[in-house]
């Protein structure tokens, strides 16, 4: 809770709390996310504007086996409660599957060790078309020197394939002192090989697009409902010409 | 016009420990920043950035720091600022981080930004005020802050340091 308070004082307008699910154990159930209203009785206001801060919930799945992906397709109700879903693929095949077919918002790129696979253009381009963003973490870079090298090398290899599009930089901060302000994070993006405009977008517009992507994914069930009731739409359409007729006659 | 162009980086020192702010010294901060540049950019980075590197202004009450560097190397400095992890002074380590607020070409632009920023901070503090006296104090200082002609330090315009 301390971390979130520091976030707000530094100038962020939306924060996502992450749950990581690892598949080392045989059976794991997805727990219900902690509702943000339990943590804060009243959300403080963003600096500079008069809107309240959003606190979102996020789920990260660490997948090292294709069978783990079935969890995403399952109709477990708890998954629907999370605002953003991210997947952390460990092998090349899983990376391909995550970019092309899985229904997620973010694909996490490993920063703590040397990548076991090289990125290829086709899955990355498909992910960009689908609106999936790649995520880089910066807190390991602050903590340790070897992590910093892996972070920079992985980030630059990603940049060379995707040309700086669809990147989100986020922190995996566990303590409030590991957080950095938005201007600083955009400067970190310069180190990763992004241009200045792309780095600022990685902190602001891309994150907002991810949030919207998560919302559209959540409300995808809603689209099904409107298709089932086409009559309502037709009635509205017929109502409009009647009004027009009335006007012309009058 | 032949003149050396500088960039002034305005930062805020954020720390959990309330004692940290009182012990900020310009030399300790300069050393911490140089150390971060060495770790990130190596000897070349340190040499580039330290051509005209100084801590121009330091306000221990609000934790505001103004750094100066050459225009050619301000990117190296800005990208190394997130890596400042702790501040050492008088044989004590305080974990903290620097939050970059504004980068300007002159001290005057940074001062203008700082006045506006302090105004919004005071407004924020006003909401969290519980004491009526403090409230009046803050309101008075809000109405009286302005850009004076003689480049006075903007630290004079805040009065409520203890309520942080």
What is shown here, in short?
The complex is a heterodimer of chains A (250) and B (164). Chain A has 250 residues and is α/β, with parallel strands linked by helices. Chain A is built from 13 helices and six strands.
Question: What would you note in describing this structure?
Answer:
The complex is a heterodimer of chains A (250) and B (164). In chain A, 50% of the residues lie in helices and 15% in strands. Chain A is an alpha/beta fold. Chain A has a single domain, classed as Alpha-Beta Barrel (TIM Barrel). In chain A, helix 2 links the parallel strand 1 (14-22) and strand 2. In chain A, helix 9 (182-191) crosses helix 10. Chain A is globular. Chain A starts with a helix and ends with a helix. The relative contact order of chain A is 0.10. Residues 221-250 of chain A have low confidence and may be disordered. With 164 residues, chain B is an alpha+beta fold. Chain B folds into 2 domains: 1-105, Ribonuclease P, Pop5 subunit (Alpha-Beta Plaits, 2-Layer Sandwich); 107-150, no CATH class. Chain B has 5 helices and 5 strands. Chain B has helices spanning 18-22, 26-49, 74-80, 107-128, 132-144; strands at residues 6-15, 54-59, 64-70, 86-89, 92-104. In chain B, strands 2-3-1-5-4 form a 5-stranded antiparallel β-sheet. In chain B, a hairpin with a 4-residue loop joins strand 2 and strand 3 (64-70). In chain B, helix 4 (107-128) runs antiparallel to helix 5 (132-144). Chain B is globular and about 55 Å long. The N and C termini of chain B lie far apart (45 Å).
């Amino acid at each position: 809770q301390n971390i979130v308070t520091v976030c707000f004082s530094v100038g962020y307008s939306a924060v996502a709390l992450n749950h990581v699910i690892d598949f080392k154990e045989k059976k794991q159930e997805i727990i219900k996310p902690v509702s943000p209203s339990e943590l804060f009785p009243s959300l403080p206001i963003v600096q500079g504007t008069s809107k309240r801060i959003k606190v979102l919930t996020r789920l990260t799945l660490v997948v090292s086996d294709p069978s783990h992906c079935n969890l995403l397709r399952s109709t477990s109700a708890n998954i629907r409660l999370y605002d953003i879903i991210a997947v952390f693929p460990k092998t090349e095949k899983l990376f391909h599957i995550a970019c092309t077919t899985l229904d997620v918002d973010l694909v996490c790129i490993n920063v703590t060790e040397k990548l076991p696979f090289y990125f290829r253009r086709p899955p990355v381009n498909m992910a960009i078309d689908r609106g999936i963003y790649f995520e880089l973490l910066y807190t390991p870079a602050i903590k340790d020197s070897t992590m910093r090298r892996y972070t920079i090398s992985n980030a630059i290899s990603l940049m060379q394939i995707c040309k700086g599009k669809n990147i989100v930089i986020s922190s995996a901060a566990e303590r409030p002192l590991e957080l950095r302000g938005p201007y600083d994070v955009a400067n970190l993006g310069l180190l990763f090989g992004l241009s200045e405009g792309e780095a600022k977008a990685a902190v602001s517009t891309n994150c907002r697009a991810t949030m919207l992507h998560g919302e559209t994914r959540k409300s995808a069930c809603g689209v099904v409902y409107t298709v089932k009731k086409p009559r309502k739409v037709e009635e509205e359409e017929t109502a409009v010409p009647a009004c027009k007729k009335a006007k012309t006659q009058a | 016009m032949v003149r050396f162009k500088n960039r002034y980086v305005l930062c805020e020192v954020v720390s959990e420990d309330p004692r940290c702010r009182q012990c900020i010294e310009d030399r300790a901060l300069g050393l911490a920043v140089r150390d971060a540049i060495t770790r990130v950019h190596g000897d070349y980075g340190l040499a580039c950035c330290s051509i005209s590197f100084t801590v121009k202004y330091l306000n221990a009450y609000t934790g505001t720091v103004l750094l100066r560097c050459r225009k050619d190397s301000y990117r190296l400095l800005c990208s190394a600022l997130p890596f400042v992890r702790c501040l050492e002074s008088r044989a004590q380590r305080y974990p903290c981080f620097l939050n970059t607020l504004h980068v300007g070409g002159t001290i005057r632009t940074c001062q203008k930004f700082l006045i506006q920023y302090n105004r919004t901070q005071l407004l924020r503090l006003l909401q969290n005020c519980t004491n009526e006296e403090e409230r009046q104090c803050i309101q008075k200082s809000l109405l009286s802050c302005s850009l004076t002609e003689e480049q006075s330090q903007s630290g004079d315009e805040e009065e409520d340091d203890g309520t942080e």
